[in-house]
Amino acid sequence: MAVMIEVSYDEVDRAKQAWSTQAETLTGATLRIAKVNGGGLSARVAAEVRRFGRRWHTEIDSLATLAQDNADAFVFVKGTYEVSDLQQAERIRSLLPWADRHDPIRTA
Amino acid sequence: MATIELPAEVPAVPHMDSQPTEAASVAGDFRTVGAVLHDVQSWSDRGAAPKAWKGDAAEAAGHARTRFARRADVAEEALQLATVASVRFEDRLQRLEKRRSCLDSRRSLVNEGIQGLRTVIDNRSIGEAEARTQAAALRRRASDLTGDITVWMLDLSDAEADYVGALQRIDTVAEARKVAAKVALPDTRALYAHLRSLRGDARATAAWWASLTVAQQQALMVAYPGAVGSTDGIPMVDRDAANRTNIDALRSDLQQRAEHGRLTRQQQRALTNLDAMHKIEQKYAATVDPETGQPLLDIIKYDPFAYGGDGSSIVSLGNPDLAGDVTTYTPGLTSHGGTLDGFAQVEALHTSMAASSGSAATILYDDYNMPDLDGLPGDVAGSPGRFDNDLRDAMAVASPADARDAAHHLVGFLHGLDATRTYSGDPQVTVIGHSYGSEVAAYAAQLHGSHGQLDNVVLVANPGVPGHDVHDLVGNSGIHVYVGSDDHDPVSLLGRGPAGGTGTLGQDPAAASYGATRFSVSGGPETLYGLTHNHDAGSYFSGEGLRNITAIATGHQPQVVAGRTEGSYENLPTFVRHSAEGSLPWPYNHLVTDGDVASGNTPAAHAVHTLTGLVPGPVKVEGGRLALDGAGGAVDLTDAQVHTLDLLAHGAGPLDPLASYAAAGLDGVVPVADDVSHNVETLLSDLKGLL
């Protein structure tokens, strides 16, 4: 059973690239926040700065992973994007802009 | 004498374990991460369900990009709040540091008083009544001081507790969401729109910025760091913080793309520019201006993508808002803003100014499309693919249009300095331009007139200025016009003057008839080498030239010399011919070594190729003898001479070959090559073609 979303190739391609870019950007942010150590501040302040940094490092890292997973959801095979089943089609559609949320998914 | 009760000496005021500079550094880190999150959030939000969505909530919740946008939103808000908390903490620490300094001074006085009174009592050189009176006064002062120190310690503890509390309140996603909902974060889009509406009016911008809360300022700096960093009228300390945020976020992003092999050519150039900026940031990371106690380096504007990838930058050593002597330097031909070309001159000048006046700020103004001849014939360092842009740059050398345009921006920048200046005395403001930069400086002086603070304009190695004389340039504005022109600098001979000159760019300001004040410079040799070396900014910003520029910039008189008159100097063609006729030895014959010249990888080799197109024969330095194949003969060398040549040939030594050559004691030992004359003709032809 073939599944397809009625959306242009270019739009899907742009979405995949954009998710990849967000993943890279967020990875850069994780590296930056990981370096925050509060040296030159008192022990209790530095400890809290580090704790804060660790907590948000975890969240930003998680966002980076999610962005990369979203980019990877677009499977490019033999010159086109492949959708294997209805569930994957719905996932991809929800990664596209809000305006595309009703783009038809067809099965044949 | 009866017992007199002296107070105990007041113990030292405790040191602050938390330093304001470190709080600022943490704020900078949080701001940078916040700026990155803002970019991600903005992208995701553009494709998410509207925040005011009134439809089916499940539909919005089921949309993955909307969920992602909401999560990024909370993260950005948390980092924004953490930035604000850190900036407030830094501000409190700065005030506490000042109070500590005052307390420490009071303590010294009180303890000195106690020790002094003890001494005179021991010496019995004071009466009992007087001793009792003084002791009572000292007890009161010591008691008051001890109380003030206690209050200060409590305030420090409160500042730290407040900061820790602020971070703790937002250190989980759920908590951050709750706090963000309560505090009503600033509307950054509205603030940004207002900031844009004020562009071009530095005074209005300064007044508006001062009216914002810390939270509003920081929100703008997180969301639009590039815009805040480049707007005239915003205080330098805030522009610096915003620019560092922008630079860090951009660099981090481009590094990530580079790791994944996804850099475009344009991004690659930008990353090269950012790396150059980063090196300078690192170099000055721990350097503080002794006059202000603030970091010495201020980044006032930086765009690594500007001007077709050349980049733009305005950086300062010393804070221009606080300094008494403020100098803006505009470099010329071949300068790139992205890589901060001309910064070496700013460093030299700042060191000299700070030694002379103390309260100095020296600004590199690399924010215009400077002529850049990379890629033109004869340029060995040019990068392929940039020819069109460079050709346009070269054409601009012959036209003052770009200089006038650049001058408009420079005047806007000077007005921005006026708007944010907090220096309480009478400031000394100077604009210095070198080569094409001096043309920009001249036009800026003409445009500026008496609208704001500009005391001096210094034209160094100028190729021609507008107007017939100095009055045409600055009228009755009171701006003093100074000129530094070496008679052996070919570019300074281009202006229309008593001995000729093409006059493409206007009058020679070094001419006596122009009416400017001409100061002495070190002066270079009349050699082929001097044709380019004598025009280098480095040769003006050293020795006598640097001393005189410093004098002007710090409100003193330079060493004045007579302006050019007919017969007092050579015009360009005569100068070039004399340079070539072997009246002085031509040092390039020596600056070669086996293979290195041919491969073109050393500064000396570049100089030889660029100037003459010659590739002198291979040279052997063996056993203290220098053999020059093709030039004939050989000379004995000392170990020091061999070492100097070795350094030169491998590019590891000083980049002033003439000076090093002279230091090696080799002047005049080798005859000029036979084919020099031919190359002089070619060089003259190239110069005429370009200028």
What layout of secondary structure does this protein have?
The complex is a heterodimer of chains A (about 110) and B (about 700).
Chain A: E1 3-5, H1 9-34, H2 43-72, E2 75-77, E3 80-82, H3 86-95, E4 105-107
Antiparallel strand pairs in A: 1-4, 2-3
Chain B: H1 20-46, H2 57-61, H3 64-122, H4 128-168, H5 173-183, H6 188-197, H7 202-211, H8 214-223, H9 225-229, H10 236-259, H11 265-283, E1 297-303, E2 312-317, E3 325-330, H12 343-357, E4 360-366, H13 387-397, H14 401-420, E5 428-434, H15 436-448, E6 456-460, H16 470-474, E7 480-484, E8 517-518, H17 528-533, H18 537-540, H19 543-553, H20 572-580, H21 596-599, H22 603-612, E9 619-622, E10 625-628, E11 634-636, H23 639-649, H24 657-663, H25 676-690
Parallel strand pairs in B: 3-4, 3-5, 5-6, 6-7, 7-8
Antiparallel strand pairs in B: 1-2, 2-4, 9-10, 10-11
Outline the structure in words.
The complex is a heterodimer of chains A (108) and B (691). Chain A is mainly alpha-helical and 108 residues long. Helix content of chain A is 61%, strand content 11%. Chain A contains 3 helices and 4 strands; from the N terminus they run βααββαβ. In chain A, a hairpin with a 2-residue loop joins strand 2 (75-77) and strand 3. The longest helix of chain A has 30 residues, at 43-72. Chain A is elongated. Chain B is built from 25 helices and 11 strands. In chain B, strands 1-2-4-3-5-6-7-8 form an 8-stranded mixed β-sheet. A 3-stranded antiparallel β-sheet of chain B has the order 9-10-11, with no helix packed on it. In chain B, a hairpin with a 5-residue loop joins strand 10 (625-628) and strand 11 (634-636). At the A-B interface, helix 1, helix 2 and helix 3 of A face helix 1, helix 3, helix 4 and helix 10 of B.
Key structural traits:
A: 108 residues; mainly alpha; 3 helices; 4 strands; 11% strand; B: 691 residues; alpha/beta; three-stranded antiparallel sheet; 25 helices; 8% strand; flat; disordered C terminus
